[in-house]
Amino acid sequence: MMNAVITGASKGIGKAIAERLAREGFNVAICARQEAALQAAKESIQAQNAAVTVLAEQVDMGDKSQVLAFAEKIKSTFSSVDILVNNAGIFIPGALNEEADGLLEQLMAVNVYSAYHLTRSLLPDMITKRNGHIFNLCSVASHKAYANGGSYSITKHALLGFSRNLREEMKPHGIRVTSISPGATLTASWDGFEAPPDRMMPPEDIATIVWTAFSLAKQTVVEDILLRPVLGDI
């Protein structure tokens, strides 16, 4: 049985990916900050497939020590990691000259450093086994500057840079790296925004993209995937 790790998986895109991979027969390790939401997600993921193991850990992905502890828990639970999805992130819009002091540091810690530290912790085993597919959940804001993007946009540009550099470095080791950049997706990040649900993409579509990219031949990698609602950005 194969194993997957998805960060920030108590809701939205992360949860949809975890549920899809569980249905496909993967053991799944997830993490989130809020214990109640985490346990609810664990039950929902387990309900997709009673035969798989679901490891759910309460982790603040903005805290390096907690990220590294999560990595050790993963390594002690699973013999290998076949899929790593760096999905944890915070979306806080705001203009650079108006946003709160310290916001850039906070968003960098969660949106970028968490992926960096967790990936570095899990890579040695992947490299030894010459196996693994790493997905980094970027954003349309990784490719295009938007008014009111502020620190969030900066961190998403940085995450895409991390992902592309990792792709180059992992070529000799047979490890696939894919950057996925969704536009407006119907998740809690958009709570309070008044728009018909069909104006946004369902998170299950992102899960389908992850599964499709992983399912390709081992010698094939989709490097960058950009998705938007059919009517465009919101």
TrEMBL record:
InterPro entries xref list: NAD(P)-bd_dom_sf (IPR036291), Sc_DH/Rdtase_CS (IPR020904), SDR_fam (IPR002347)
Similarity comment: Belongs to the short-chain dehydrogenases/reductases (SDR) family.
Domain of life from the UniProt record: Bacteria
Record key words, sorted: Oxidoreductase
Stated name of the protein: NADP-dependent 3-hydroxy acid dehydrogenase YdfG
One GO cellular component term noted in the UniProt record for this chain: membrane
PANTHER family tied to this protein: DEHYDROGENASE/REDUCTASE SDR FAMILY MEMBER 7B, DEHYDROGENASE_REDUCTASE SDR FAMILY MEMBER 7B
Coiled-coil residue windows: none
Example of a GO MF term: oxidoreductase activity
Pfam families registered for this protein in UniProt: adh_short
